[in-house]
Amino acid sequence: MVEAEQRLLMLVDSDPAQCRLVGALAGREGWRTITVDDSEKAIATLGTREGMQLSAIILDQAVPGDQAVDLIAELKDRRPALPILMLTGNTSPQLAVEAMRAGATDYLVKPVAPDRLMQALRNATTRESPRDELMPMSEKMPAQLDFDTMVGNAPPFRDALAKAAKAARGHGHVLIEGESGTGKEMLVRAMHAASPRAKTAFRMMNIAGISASSLDSALFGHEKGAFPGAFDQQVGAFQHCDGGTLVLDEVDRLPLDVQDRLADVLTTGRVKPLGAQYGFKVDVRVIAASNRPLKDMVATGHFRAELLEAVSATCITLPPLRDRNRDIGALTRYFLYQIGQQPGLRPLGVNSDALRLLGGFDWPGNVRQLQAVLFRAAVFCEGDALTADDFPHLREIVGETEPTKNGPIRESAGVMLYTPDGNLRPLEEIEADVIRLAIGHYRGRMTEVARRLGIGRSTLYRKLSDLGIDNAA
Questions:
Q1: What residues contact residue 80 under an 8 Å CB cut-off, 6+ apart?
Q2: Where in or outside the cell (predicted)?
Q3: Does residue 134 fall inside a structural domain?
C-alpha cells in the first residue's frame, strides 16, 4: 500500500484515448493514475487525501489552453516539490521558457514516443537522478538541418561528419550508431537536406513507439481484410516514401520476424503488403539509427546478420560527449548563441569556472543533455554570463573546481595545438585534425577540400591513407 501511495500520478487531460494510453504506460511501471479533465478539478484534487499522495502530474496544455502557464504556477505554489510534465502540440520556445519559469519539470511536444514520455517521468521522479538543471527538457529549440551547425573538432566526431557528408550525396542505405543524445537525429536531417532526395518524401519512424503487432502494417502496409480489424487498406511507410528516404530510429528494437521481412525488402527492393497477392518495386533509401552496436546484438542472436549487412552500406558511429570533452566549450558557446535567439531569452556568455565545471561532468545524456542544462540555466540566469553558481547540482556531483588543480579548460577553439601537459602535439596529429576539419567543413567535397588546403587530390588521398583517415576516403 505504501508503494502505491508513493507512485500516484495525476493526469490532467480531456482526451479519453490519450488518458487510456498514458494510464496503461504508467501502469506497467507501477504507477496508479487518477484523471481530471479541467483546471478547477486539478487544483481541487491537490487538497484531497488522494491528492496529498501524488508523486507527479502530467498536464496536457490543451486542457487549460492559454492559461497553462498560470495553472502550472498555481499547482507549484500549492505543491512546490511536485514534478509537473507538460504535453503540448505547440513548438514555440517562448512557451517552453514560460512553462519552465512557472515550474514545469519537463516539456514534451506531441506526438511524443511512449518510451520518451516514460523516461521523462522516470527522470522527474527518481530520487537518485540529478535534479533541477540536470533534468533533461525533452523539447527545447527547433532542430537545425545543416552540417555546419554540428559543432566539434574531436577527431572521431569529424570523421563521422566527413563520412556522413560523403554518404549524403549517394543513394545507399546508412546505419548511424551512437548513444542516446549524441545527435543521430540531427545528423539524419542534415544528411537528408544535403542529399539528392532532399525534395522527395521523408518520414521518420521511431520503432520503440510502435506496438510490435502494428509494425508490419506500419512498414509494409496491409490490404482490407488482411486480419481481424483491418477494415481498410493501409499504405505502408515504404510505399509512402517511394523515391525518398525512410528513417528507422531505434532499429535495434525491431522483432526478429520483422527484421527478416525488412532484410528481404532492402535486398530485393520489393514490398508485399500483408494480405496482398502481389508485391511491387520501391525505391527507398533507408537510414537506420541504433543506440546499441548492432554487431554485438548479432553476436548474441538479437539482430539478424542479413539485416545488418543490408542496412549498413555506410556505417557511421557518433562518439559520446565524454569522448569529445574538448568540444564542450565550443558546444556551450554555440548553444548559448542559439538559446539567446529564442523569444523571451537573451544572449549570454559563460565564464571559465562554468566551462571547467561543464568539462568535469561525464554527460550520460550526451549533447542533448548539455543543451538542456544550458537552456534551463539560461532561463533562470540573472547576469550577463553563466557562472558555476548557475549549476548548483552539477557542482554537487563534480565538486568545487580550482584552475590550478584542474589544468587548462578543455575546449575546442579550433585545432588543438597542445597536449594536456602543455607540450606541442606531434605535427602528424595536427595535420590529421586539419584535414578532418576541412572534410567536415566542406561536407566531404574532396576537390574543394584539396583546393582549400592547397594540395592536389592525389596528395590529399595519399595523406588520408598515410594518416589512417579511412572514414573519409
A1: 103
A2: Cytoplasm
A3: no
